Amino acid sequence: MWVYGAQSYRPLGTAAQYTVVPGDLAVPLPDHLPDDLGASLGIPGITAHRTVFADGPVDGKLVLVNGVLGGVGTLAAQLARWGGATVIGTVRRGTELDRIDPAVVSHAVALDSGDPAAAIRSHAPDGVDRIIEVALSDNAELDDTVAANGAVIAAYATRNDRTEIPFWTLLFNNVTLRLLGSDDFPAEAKRQAARELTAQAHDRIDAGGRGRILIDIPQ
User: In the chain, N or C: fewer CB atoms in 10 Å?
Assistant: First the structure.
């Protein structure tokens, strides 16, 4: 089993040795998949799924994932690729580019390059269809520059975000800005994410490849 929502309006969360959640927040994990895999899903996985699919299928679309090596970004990129999208991913530094899985991310761009917007545009001349954003306060101007007309920016907002949104240019480019907070996703969206995350994780394990690192601390 793997669980999610263990700290949403209740104490401790999954960092505790034991936690109790309602039955529908405990998701069956196929027998041949390790518990460690389930421990890597939870809120990052639910959030990633919502950022990718909240506005419908991504098959055939260009999806930009900012912070593609982060907890949410890594899973969002995998889910977008699984959903049939071409994924462009960004990292903070050029030294991180060799950590990106080319089977998932078709084009990678370092934000410390001379002109990351131009680099993204070289792969998406008409702009990107969806932008997955976990640092809107840092990347709002970049997102505005590379978004296609009618694009969706799905931003996982935090309490520390103090973003000045480029309202008028987004408005005239017909961009939808979706702000997401994982505690308040619709219940059905969470259940769908749980089902599809388990299926996608199953496929990913069978196929091999790079992924996140989980530290197992002996008791």
Answer: C
